[in-house]
Amino acid sequence: MNAYLVGADVLGNIPDLLTQYGISIHQHVSGRHAAHQRKPKSLAGVDLIILFTDFLGHNVMRHYREFANEQNIRFVACRRSVCSLSQSLEKMSCQKVCDTCPNRKLH
């Protein structure tokens, strides 16, 4: 699954957490630049939009939520913390990928 991340200058441990859920970062924008605050032109190959609410204004979040709904892309809005993102992903029924799980499907 590919994710488009909006908000936060530094991701810290977020990429490691996303890897645990089998999610790779397609692109990350901080949301500070005017070009980042509008709907992106295309999100081809993106399965999930993650909005970090403590770094974004209401209008920016609204633009991305509308775009996600138009493109039928799931989105998560949460604070930029590992705990908050993990809780939001679990509410979406995302499960961590476990290397030792006997039910894990090998490619």
Structure, explained:
This protein has 107 residues and is α/β, with parallel strands linked by helices. It contains 3 helices and 4 strands. The chain is 29% helix and 20% strand. The mean pLDDT is 84. Strands 2-1-3-4 form a 4-stranded parallel beta sheet, sandwiched between helices. The longest helix is centred in the middle third of the chain and has 14 residues, at 58-71.
Characteristic terms for this protein:
107 residues; alpha/beta; 4 strands; 29% helix; globular
Structure, briefly:
This protein is an alpha/beta fold.
Order of helices and strands: EHEEHEH
Helix content: 25-40%
Residues in β-strands, percent: 15-25%
Cα shape? globular
Summed up, the helix count is 3
Number of strands: 4
Q: Over all CA atoms, what is the radius of gyration?
A: 14 Å
Give the strand order, joined by hyphens, for the main sheet.
Answer: 2-1-3-4
Residue-averaged pLDDT, rounded?
A: 84
Biggest sheet: strands, sense, closure?
Answer: 4 strands, parallel
Cα distance spanning the termini: 14 Å
Low-confidence stretches: none
Structural class: alpha/beta
Quaternary state reads: single chain
